[in-house]
Design goal:
Two copies of one chain form a homodimer. The radius of gyration of chain A is 32 Å and the shape is rod-shaped. The first copy, chain A, is of the alpha/beta class. In chain A, helix 1 crosses helix 2, helix 1 crosses helix 3 and helix 2 crosses helix 3. Chain A contains nine helices and twelve strands. Chain A is about 40% helix and about 25% strand. In chain A, strands 3, 4, 5, 6, 7, 8, 9, 10, 11 and 12 form a ten-stranded mixed β-sheet that branches. Chain A has three domains: about 80 residues, Winged helix-like DNA-binding domain superfamily/Winged helix DNA-binding domain (Arc Repressor Mutant, subunit A), CATH 1.10.10; about 100 residues, Periplasmic binding protein-like II (D-Maltodextrin-Binding Protein, domain 2, 3-Layer(aba) Sandwich), CATH 3.40.190.10; about 100 residues, D-Maltodextrin-Binding Protein, domain 2, CATH 3.40.190. At the A-B interface, helix 4 and helix 9 of A face helix 4 and helix 9 of B. The first copy, chain A, binds a DNA duplex (30 and 30 nucleotides) through helix 3. Chains A, B: It comes from Salinicola acroporae. Chains A, B: Belongs to the LysR transcriptional regulatory family. Chains A, B: Keywords: DNA-binding, Transcription, Transcription regulation.
Chain lengths: ~300, ~300
Amino acid sequence: MNYELQQIQAFLKVAELESFQAAAQSLNLSQPALSRRIKKLESILGTPLLARTTRSVSLTTVGRDFFPQAKRLVDEFDHALFNIRALAENRIGQITLACIPTAAFYFLPAVIREYNARYPNIRIRLLDLSANDGLGAVLSGEAEFGINMLSGHHPDIVFTPLVVEPFVLVCRHDHPLATHGSVTWSELSEHKLIGVGKMSGNRMLLDHELSSLTQRPSWFYEVQHLSTSLGMVEAGLGVAAVPRLSMPDQEHPLLVQCPLIEPLVKRTLGMVRRRDSALSPAAERFVETLLKHWDKGGIEGGIGPINL
Amino acid sequence: MNYELQQIQAFLKVAELESFQAAAQSLNLSQPALSRRIKKLESILGTPLLARTTRSVSLTTVGRDFFPQAKRLVDEFDHALFNIRALAENRIGQITLACIPTAAFYFLPAVIREYNARYPNIRIRLLDLSANDGLGAVLSGEAEFGINMLSGHHPDIVFTPLVVEPFVLVCRHDHPLATHGSVTWSELSEHKLIGVGKMSGNRMLLDHELSSLTQRPSWFYEVQHLSTSLGMVEAGLGVAAVPRLSMPDQEHPLLVQCPLIEPLVKRTLGMVRRRDSALSPAAERFVETLLKHWDKGGIEGGIGPINL
DNA sequence: ACCATTAATGCACCAAAGACATCAATAGAC
DNA sequence: GTCTATTGATGTCTTTGGTGCATTAATGGT
């Protein structure tokens, strides 16, 4: 025989109003039903809580002791209910996402700005990690989801493509290649190429895509981050092949980009999340915001939305 | 739509065991019933709490946040339940009673001793007040009940007679009246009588009972407490008319008592309590103990139990 | 003494929750 | 790759418990 919240609430109401009839009315209940509810509670507790006359109701000694406890219980229930609803409705909470630097710089600021305006009480923990580390963060559960590039499919990871972007050549405006309409990968072998480290996701992608070429480009400089390589291009040390989105802006004072073809190498950016692990409502909202932004072409430089 | 304790408990069990089947078994419930219970809770809260696969169960982000709150809620319910049961079963608690000094000295010690042996955790607050003040304490609710003398019936007071005792004459063994078999009230006018103050219940009772006498005794000394008057008798200052129970003991080294007749004035001692106010279980037990003691003739000096 | 009001009770009814049987999905064994 | 066993969800019927209506008993006020 279990005692329940409704019984406690009934007791409180009767105790406050000192009347079964009034309390029943207040609880949208018939008076007999309320009588029985109280009766049941008393039988569960093993002691009367209310001293009833046919004319009036008052608390018994035990009832008087129980009253404050009961009130606190109901209050805590209400509080917990409110709390969880707020959590569910994104009025409070926190999301953690892991994304690659490109996304952190070019995708997310606008999305975060809008999301934060709409859900001002959701804190955002943004882990800007390399493609590998970001995937690890999602896998370990440290991040609820991530923005990453499509790579070898891990069995526990679901990838939702968002945008496909080509690799482009970046060079200084005064570089010989700057005036070419487009450049083939083979042509690059004649120039000093700035590449990223062997463990980079981009590097592995390129190595894989270009493996069939006879004239494979060889990297003259090797750095760890794309932003560094851009800096070196800026300094006139060479040229670089980078995803178009990692370019700071269309109108850069020194840098120009041109398509890299034969082959056209693209990378797919998208959302990664663990299979079988529901997102928090807050994260769900974030993804919604993200998709909305992307739908209205907020991401310049990509080759547009893809369908899948 | 109300959410209830059972649902919270169900959620906790599933979260702990990470299995609907195991939790259902533990709750003595069928697995489908448990599924529905959780489902309902989730629909009330408006958010999923558990991420179910056909093979495993885990907490959602919201569920993880809710879990500790839920646990605390259930714990507090359990605690409150335990508490109130303990109160009802007299394992803890306190009773307050107001009694006249006679009762405090001669009725209660034995009763309290037995009661305390049986219910060692009930604290007893004993207000030893005058008849008037004691009645006031009961009326105000400060005392749950009292032991008092029968007086003008207050409408809110119920009086349960316990014992009737006569007034007796107390004198020193060397006093002229000491050898009389009995003494009439009229005879007292020739002796120095020690009485109590005008507001004493005993005094009012006597004044009332003796109002028809032509030879009314007049008090030579007036004190406030019967015990004081006994002391004065002991000192040889006079004699006193006191209720028999207020006599310290049958075999007092100095004092002797003898019946006071014409008329035989009796006072009725009994329990007083407020009408329409239930006693706490602890107090109920106390009254039981009290009645048991009195039934087996534990009160010497009275003229025995009376029936009403 | 009567009336009005209050809580309790008898009874018929209905809704919510439960059990049973079954289905769909999936991890693990081979 | 296929099959099996196990897990949670769902459909359906049953049952229990709670509810409302009508009525009763008790009591304070007139």
